């Protein structure tokens, strides 16, 4: 079987490849670039005798992701404040299909993507291919150029690493690069209560929906004003958002939409994206809030259509 680079193949494999690249990189723009590069490479090289086109493309994307991560490692070391992934904003219902595993929202959450950052590049690839994309170990071995037995060990080690949950109060060095539980709860109800409490200025309601030991991470990347350390505790978080609301200017608007597989908030100024907020919910309360204000991480989000 050959890869012919047709539009049908692109349509078939792109969702799967993007889901892998985005989870590997935490960047919408870079993931899209990697997928495009993979198809361009196939079109130019015209490989023959490809028995499994999907696995072949996954291999190209995986190695290109690792190259991107390797080249960006120095930039990450000097990043100002907490690093958060680029928000994946979806304004329409995703299609259903066997290859469209990006609809597994649990593995798209901001908390989950941050958790993956704790793994080495190879561990991340093996973990995603096995846990999210459900590849067999012999398939993973071919993609990452390791033995099947080695891939089993890598996956086991990665899964064990992801179960460690540091407390930002007692382990402040980890607070700027948080690890959280993989388990996620639907955020819709909690986010709705959060928004209504902010809009009405109901601080007590806000404190009730935010867990006492909640943490807020704010990513400005040194480009705009943002907290360079996590904000700990419901009272401090409530005060932070209350101050933000008090500073809103004319032209401010917001949209509650699907962000990283669950309910999130995109705010705008005169129709241009200002920030994106995602949440982690535990036992019906908000335990983690992730605020992306770095303008470089919002460029891919379409402007809000304003009534003329």
From TrEMBL:
GO molecular function, one term: DNA binding
Pfam family, one: Sigma70_r4_2
SUPFAM superfamilies: NTF2-like (SSF54427), Sigma2 domain of RNA polymerase sigma factors (SSF88946), Sigma3 and sigma4 domains of RNA polymerase sigma factors (SSF88659)
Domain RNA polymerase sigma factor 70 region 4 type: 111-162
A biological process term (GO) from this entry: DNA-templated transcription initiation
Annotated ranges, domain RNA polymerase sigma-70 region: 10-74
Subunit and interaction comment: Interacts transiently with the RNA polymerase catalytic core formed by RpoA, RpoB, RpoC and RpoZ (2 alpha, 1 beta, 1 beta' and 1 omega subunit) to form the RNA polymerase holoenzyme that can initiate transcription.
The protein's name in its UniProt record: RNA polymerase sigma-70 factor
Organism phylogeny: Bacteria, Bacillati, Bacillota, Bacilli, Bacillales
